[in-house]
Design brief:
Number of strands: 13
Strand content: 15-25%
CATH class of the largest domain: Alpha Beta
CATH topology of the largest domain: TIM Barrel
Strand order of the largest sheet: 4-5-6-7-8-9-10-11
Bound molecules: magnesium ion
Radius of gyration: 19 Å
Shape: globular
Number of domains: 2
Order of helices and strands: EEEHHHHEHEHEHEHEHEHHEHEEE
Structural class: alpha/beta
């Protein structure tokens, strides 16, 4: 197997504002794994708050010795080797995992969801993220999201009630909220949760900081009128078990989980723990999003809007019909160049 990679910078259509900062671009690295003339495609997306950079990904990938594997079919063995190479580097690892699943799917002529034994594609509509911005720009952003039937609203600011008021005025869609750790006080967080419940929100991500007191988060979970999902608090399989004490569910993202194989394991374990599952994303190209879409039918909430937030997707956008991101019925992840 031969690995190649190149850095690329995604341009965001609108400034992407979160409780902890705003940005206009996302750095990524695109990977290719080739075996006997067949190419699998992968991607590492690198939002700044995760600590990985194009340089760190390229350094990690440059150190891998994948030539030692004669065939790509020993997926578990190869990914275990990649994982042990160095700690962290979750997005870099995901870029190998995605390319490997794409490659093996193409060789076996099977769509990736079939590789995981996922049988029926029970479809779920994807949400579209409305990031934090000047209040006056929100109506325009909500109109731009017309092709999506669910909105995910970024909160965790001093103006959350005003944001919610504008959203409710502008649309009548199902709503998710993401506070991105923005509520520092448990009583205030609970008030916000009741406000969101009254306004018809269905679920709330990461209300309090990752390093808040365990007792505060347990208190909030017990009293919350809405299901609370861990995002920043849970990256990999090893984080899952403990999070069940503090959250009703988790947001699983390929860039945190090191790719599809571990994301699938997390979904299976989260189900056993009776946790809700959101399948989320970073700002990503069609590559990582289509990879995730193969797992979407076994999640409760799907938030795979990445390619629709960027203006220079190097691949064809995923097909979006009636708010559903269509999982291609093609070998591998089904990416079109
Ligand atoms: Mg989130």
């Amino acid at each position: 197997m031969k690995l190649s990679f190149r850095p690329y910078t995604l341009q965001l259509k609108n400034p992407f504002g979160l409780a902890h900062g705003t940005r206009n671009t996302t750095a990524i690295v695109l990977t290719q794994l080739e075996h006997k003339g067949i190419i699998g495609y992968g991607e590492a997306s690198l939002p700044p708050y995760h600590g990985e950079t194009q340089e760190s990904v390229i350094a990690f990938l440059s150190n891998l010795k994948l030539e030692q594997f004669e065939t790509p079919h020993e997926i578990e063995k190869i990914l275990s080797h990649v994982d042990k190479t160095q700690q962290g580097n979750n997005a870099a690892k995901a870029s190998i995992d995605i390319a490997l699943h794409d490659l093996v799917g193409k060789i076996l002529r099977k769509a990736c969801y079939e590789l995981f034994g996922i049988k029926t594609a029970e479809k779920k509509q994807s949400s579209y993220t409305i990031a934090i911005d000047e209040l006056s720009t929100l109506p325009k952003k909500i109109k731009e999201a017309k092709d999506f039937k669910i909105l995910k609203i970024k909160l965790g600011t001093k103006e959350d009630e005003k944001i919610v008021h504008i959203v409710k005025n502008e649309c009548n869609k199902p709503l998710y909220a993401d506070a991105n750790q923005g509520w520092n006080d448990k009583s205030m967080a609970l008030e916000m949760l009741y406000m969101l419940k009254e306004n018809g929100f269905e679920v709330v991500e990461q209300p309090m900081p990752v390093n808040c007191l365990d007792d505060d988060m347990m208190w909030l979970k017990e009293k919350s009128p809405l299901p609370l999902l861990a995002d920043e608090s849970v990256k990999r399989f090893g984080d899952l078990e403990k999070s069940a004490e503090f959250f009703h569910g988790i947001n699983i993202k390929l860039m945190k989980s090191t790719g599809m194989a571990e994301a699938y394991k997390m979904i299976v374990r989260a189900r056993e723990l009776k946790m809700k599952i959101m399948l989320g994303c970073m700002t990503e190209t069609s590559c990582a999003i289509l990879a995730a879409s193969h797992l979407a039918s076994i999640a409760d909430y799907v938030d795979l809007d990445g390619p629709f937030l960027i203006s220079n997707n190097p691949f064809r956008n995923p097909e979006l019909i009636d708010g559903y991101i269509i999982t291609p019925e093609k070998p591998g992840i089904g990416l079109e160049l």
